[in-house]
Amino acid sequence: MQHISVILAHPYTHSLNAAIAATVVATLEKNGYSVHFHDLYQEGFNPLINGQELVADDSSDPLLRQHQEEICRAHGIIIVHPNWWGQPPALLKGWGDHRPTAGQSRLGLQHLKHPRPARTGRLRRPARAHLERLHLRLLRRPRL
């Protein structure tokens, strides 16, 4: 059975991102995947890196260790988060910045063959064409 890690990084439990994450988890489980789901805000994840962690190859945070172990076994990772001012929430940034344990890349992602972000923010061709026509119409309007 393939293992997939799903990470949610949104502070509001009734947000669109939470609904997307719940749908992702349900769909994966329905299709036979083993899912490790983590809501970083609900778990109270600490994104701060302490001085000891900067010089050592290990973290004393048991939650971070659990995330690292699950990600090392995972066949895929899905991260659901909002885009605030062009960036993910600081909590997610801190989660990704934690120093890896010995023999791991950041959070143990070295075993993923071709990690690619999903491009969910792109406009489909008909929508883009419609916006381009609208933009041209606005440019042709006489100025007052």
- Describe the strand arrangement of the main beta sheet, using strand numbers: 2-1-3
Share in β-strands: 5-15%
Q: In sequence order, what are the helices and strands, one letter per element? A: EHEHHHEHH
- As a percent range, the share of helical residues equals 40-55%
As a whole number of angstroms, the C-alpha radius of gyration is: 20 Å
Mean pLDDT: 76
Shape: globular
Count of helix runs: 6
Question: Which helices and strands, and how do they pair?
Answer:
Layout: E1 3-8, H1 16-30, E2 34-39, H2 40-43, H3 51-55, H4 62-73, E3 76-80, H5 90-97, H6 125-140
Describe what is shown at a glance.
The chain is of the alpha/beta class and 144 residues long. 42% of the residues lie in helices and 12% in strands. It has a three-stranded parallel beta sheet with strand order 2-1-3, with helices on both faces.
Structural features:
6 helices, alpha/beta, 144 residues, 12% strand
Task: Describe the model.
Helices cover 42% and strands 12% of the residues. 15% of the residues are buried. The protein has helices at residues 16-30, 40-43, 51-55, 62-73, 90-97, 125-140, and strands at residues 3-8, 34-39, 76-80. The longest helix is centred in the last third of the chain and has 16 residues, at 125-140. Strands 2-1-3 form a three-stranded parallel beta sheet, with helices on both faces. By secondary structure, the chain is α/β, with parallel strands linked by helices. It is built from six helices and three strands.
